[in-house]
# Entry
Amino acid sequence: MKKLTLSLGILPFLIACSPSEKLPEIHALSVDELAVSVTPQENREYSYTDKKAGFWYGRAHQDEPVDWYAGWNLAKKRIFSDYTLSVDGKRLVRQDAEVKVLPDCLTRCWKNAKEQLQLVDNYELLCIRLSEVQGDSISFTLNETLLKDAVKQAEALCYTPVEAQDRVLKVVPLVAQKVTFDGNTIKAPKSAEGFLVTCGTEAHCDSLVALFRNQGNELLAARKARMNNLIQVNNPLHTNLPELDKSLAWITLTMDELITEQQGKGIYAGLPWFNEYWGRDMFIAMPGATLVTGQFDCTKEILKDFAKLQDTDTTSVTCGRVPNRANLEGILYNTTDGTPRYVMEAEELLKYSGDQSFLKDIYPSVVLSIDQSIRHHIDEKGYLLHEDADTWMDVKRNGIPGSPRGNRANDIQYLWYSQLIAGVHLAELMNDEAHAKAWQEVADKLAQNFEQDYCNKDSILIYDHLNADGTPDLQYRPNQLYCFELIGDDTFKQKVTRRVWEELVYPWGVSSLAQWDPQFHPQHENWHYYHKDDAYHNGTVWLWNNGIAMQRMIEYGQQETAWKLFCNMNRQALHEGAVGSLSENADAHPREGAKWAGRSGTFLQAWSNSEQLRVWYQYFLGIRPDMMKRVITVEPKLPAEITELETSVKIGKGTLYYIYKGGKFNVKLVGDDAEVKLILPEKPVAMNPIFKDVDFCQPHPLEHYPCFDTYHKEALTY
# Structure
């Protein structure tokens, strides 16, 4: 039986459902309702993956490829960069098209034709469909920059991809038709309805063509159904704010786009160039990518597949680590933070799913990861030691770290502590009392020392790291926000939160370094003045840090401030850059004459998307389950702008329905048993004096920026 525990505030309606009771119907957006129109002036980026090892990347109105990874990419190889279409020999110019980007396809409409570009789940196949053709013939021409050795066959055009010379690229009509050639342009009657592009051995290409001609509509429908299931069944959302509904649906789907099977199950770090598995990025992204979205089986596969890549060589200095980076060319173990996050996410999966059946498969890797660190990499206080570039601030140029943080970074100590505590819980579940006791002792030692060694309460600073000689580093970075669980002084933590927001948080995200620091570089790629790596972790904004910045504000009742940053990220997804995506980076300061900071890095970054989703579900909605204890805590911190909300999330074997209307919450768990603790604040909420009259202004090197609120208003009217 579902139980409700209410703490403070309004009495909700909570009813245990009988099997025959009608469940709430949430009117969430469908894939077809998420279309984003793009103008030629915007010429926005877009991307699709096949959920296996391939992706397509382009710009909506680009007639000639300008980006290195433009076009079709398979298993880290560029296959071809672009194509052109013609009707009756006259090219369809993309600048003249009306373009809409949807999560499952791109459409371009001209006066005499309509194009649809689509990928197919799990197959190396592109479908370029042409309909509404006003003419007799259609033609397809490939950009040959990445291709060689054109071969014309009776019903096909074949090439060898330069970067994948063991494969064949094959182009055929979508519907079998006789073709002709004009040079290397393949031409067919309009009844061909478009073209198929496949890649592999020639026999494999032929099998894919036959498959699609027989089952193409079903394959595309299944792809759309998978997407609709994610945003209408697993994570439906309907609020009084249409832009919120649309942006979160898009971010959910582009996040899911990165969950692939390129090297076992995993999550790409980002597109276009991080189309590989990075341990750190993967486990940072996991909560928003697979846990809040209810994809628990997928999460288990990722954890089990990544455990297989662990360094088990006991003579290696990295023994026990899971990879920092795993791709088809090799594995690197050069980071300290990926392995703690791997163990932490194993425990978090248990909290969401309540299913510990997978634990026996990965527990040996957990033991190895912790024991090897204790044996070789901790000091007398229990702190985890590491190299200068073995944190997420990992850039090196000519072998020299760009932001050295050795040998005891603050966030690494929090992650190590969390790994130990998660390990203790997993050991207890496995009845491994010896390891549970040993690991708890190390965790206790670390926790006893951290606040004294890292916290400067006069300067309101958590030291970014301790140097090898024990001296503290004084650079002001966002990493300190990750350490709060090791600090007991709540007033100090609130003051740190305020200072971080005043000195590091911009309307477009969280900077990696305070602008008063001599190493601060305000723009990521300002090649005229400095190398981009000089700015990468020394001023560049990292959108993934928005998550912890918003979380801390929400925890201290400042959700209205956090909401402004959250809305600006949603604005990016819908109106800037790659459609539906959040970028890796942004400039700290806008370029001369610009009102808004430019994006940089990858156009779609897993942890940027994921942290936006994690904070929405876990902190704005306040849904934090622990199904091992059969308890779901719901502590809403909704901004005033949201007056109506209907959503649901998958937890355990059931679904938590969540409705807010008329100032009241209706929370209902269906399909599983757990105690639901609804925690509501007292009303009216007293202003926290630490955050009173906070003015989040960021001075420009030449002039003073308007404050955060001004930028927020511009964002809403952009």
Remarks:
- DSSP finds 14 helices and 44 strands in the chain.
- The mean pLDDT is 93.
- The two ends are 49 Å apart (CA to CA).
- Residues 50-227 form one domain.
